[in-house]
Structure formats: structure tokens, C-alpha cells
Amino acid sequence: MNGLKTSALAIGAALAFASVGTEAAAQDCTTKIGAVLPTSVDWGKPIASTAQYAVDIANETGGVAGCQIEMVLRDTQVDPKVGVDAAKALVDLDGVQLLLGAVSSGVSMPILTSVTVPAGVMQMSCCSSSTAFTALSEEGKTNGLFYRTFATSGVQAAVGAMVAQEQGYESVAVFYKNDDWGQDIGGLVAEDLRALGIEVTAEIAINDAQASYRAEVTEALQTQPQAIYMALYPDEGTQVVREWISLGGTQNMIAANALKSDEFKENVGMQFLGNFIGTDTASPRTESADAFVDAYTARFDGPPSGPGLANSYDATMIALLAMHAAGEGAAGPQIAEKVSAVTDPNGTPVTADAAGFAQAKEVLDSGGTVSYQGATGNVQFDANGDVSAPAVIWSFGESGIDEMKYISLTEVNDFMASMK
To answer: What is the pTM of this model?
Structure first.
């Protein structure tokens, strides 16, 4: 398969049915959508590029609701205040009714509560995993405006505990980023470790931009754990690991997917990561997921190895199809209501390429529903806008990320149930 570039060419003739008037309309009007993503960090740039890739595919088919889509991108710098200011500008100045982002739960949450919900704008996140969003929805405080294509922190926490059990670790110290995401996953993994009979020797909060984390590392070292678990981002993760190793800490490390970063690997050094094991949610082993890998590789000259790329693609495609179903000029609540028409398990199956996007628009225009088969599989949201997912255990290799083990959705769910 030659990817979506080839697919787009292949459907060129099929798109010839579009009337000249429709094509002109698509060219004469532009609809802006917003994106708040951390483009100033190495792992954030590909997430943004993948979202733009999906927008490009939609525009190849004539756009959305008769108009071309312009994605207005603003950098969050993984900072809640910067993210909120960026989102406000997109909503107040650019008038967007759809906002993609953010990545970090600690940035997505204040955007949701102080910007998108009050303004009635739909927010679709590729990567925010905190269970706090589920709780907020259950309390009726999201107004049905928030969706995410990344599974909750519970999946990675459970798999992190699974790794510790499989490695035979009897004691683990937990480092977590002191934000919504880190507090959530850090607390969950500590709970899961204890459920497996593994001692949690320390739970250490790591704050932003400290000159040194020696005090925090020393506190954890004094508890003499056999391994450490890290729910940290690359900047803080690099500093913590450097301090940890320099003070004689073990190389037995388990980490959430935020450390799936070339920056982290290069700054720490492979010589210190021999026993490092990472966790992540994973795309199912389906034809649609394989097709995305092939297409992404053709577009970007390399496979989608960073965190959140498949999720970013699906978040964007689903949101754009919902916008199309809602019609030109639709407001955020109307777009959000149409997500179910795009992810209907009983709808017409459509692929996640240009041909599938064009087919989906035809079905939706005729009043039907579609079942989007995407980079993360057959996406289905629950009442809170959440999805579940398989998982993967990985390590750093000399040339990239090496997959160690794939864990199916059934295996993930069974393991999580066993701890309860």
C-alpha cells in the first residue's frame, strides 16, 4: 500500500460526481477550527502535524459542509495559563466552534472549564487521559462538549503495575507530575501496585521548572525501592533520572507514555536505560490501524512512533465528520451531538482515508450514520466521551522504540477487573 497520497489519487475520478457549484462553494468559503497543542516540545510537533494531515485529507474531498477547513494552531507550551489564553483567543477572536486539544490533562481541564464549556464550543482531545474528565461529565459539567480518543489513565496505570509484577519487583517508588494528569495516573498506579501486593515506598510530586529535584530524589532513595515508576514529561523526567542515577539509584524504571520521547532518551543516555520499560495505549491489530501506519509512513517518511499520533488523527477526522453532519455554520453543541452519527457501531463502515471521508459525507448527507474505522480501530465513545483501548509495553532501542508486548483490549479489561 502506498498510503493516503495514493488513495487520494485513486479516488480522484470517484469525486468527479461533485458539481461545479459545490466545488466553487468549497473554494469560496473557509471554516476555521482551533488547535491548542504543545508545538514547542519535540513530541508535540508530530501531534499537531498529524492533525493538520487529517485536515488536508478532508479538504482534498471538497472540505467540510461545503467549506475548506483552516486549522488555526496555537502552542500551549504544556502550560495551563498559556493554553487557556490560546484557547480564549481562538474562541473569542477566531470564532471557532471546534477546538482540538490539548494534550496534557492539566492543560485540557482549565480550557474545558473556563473556555469551551462556558462558550459552548466542542472540545476534542487526542491525548488527555485523566479520569477527572469522566467525573466532571458524570456530574453534568461538560454539557456533552468534551470527547477524547485516548483511553483514561486507568489503562496505563494498570499496565504499569502489570510490568512491575512481571519483573518481580516487590517495592516501587512513584514519581508523578504535579498536575491533573500526573496526580491522576500516579494515584491510580500506586493503588494498582498495592492491589498486587507490591509495596509503594514513596509517592513523590514533581513540580514544574525547578532548578533541581535532588531533594525529591533523595526522599525516594531513602525508601530503597527496587524500581521507580514515572508519570513525568521529558523535561522533568530527564532531570529526575539524572539525579536518581547520579545518587546511586537503580536503573529499574517503569514509565507512562509521556516519556516516549527521543529528547528524553538522548538527554539521559541509552547506557542508563537498559532496564527502562514504558507503557502506552495501543491501536488494535486491525486493517484500519495498519493502513494508517502505511499512510503516515508515506506522508512523513517514517512510522508513527511518537505518543498520541494515531489518536490525534482520529480525533481530527471524527470531529470534522461531526462538523460536516451538523452542517455549515453549526455551533459547538450541534457538532458534539453529531459525534454519535459518525461513530455508530450499526452505521456504514468507512475507512480513515480520503475515500472513506468522501463516502462518509455522502452517507451523512443522505441522513445515514457511519462507523468510523480509524487509526485506533473502530472508535466508540461512552456516555462520558471516553474510549477504551489495548495497550503496549515498550523499550528504547538504538534506532527508536521497540515493542516488547501487545496487550489486547480483553486482556487489559480482564487484568483491571482482577485487581478489583
So the answer is: 0.79
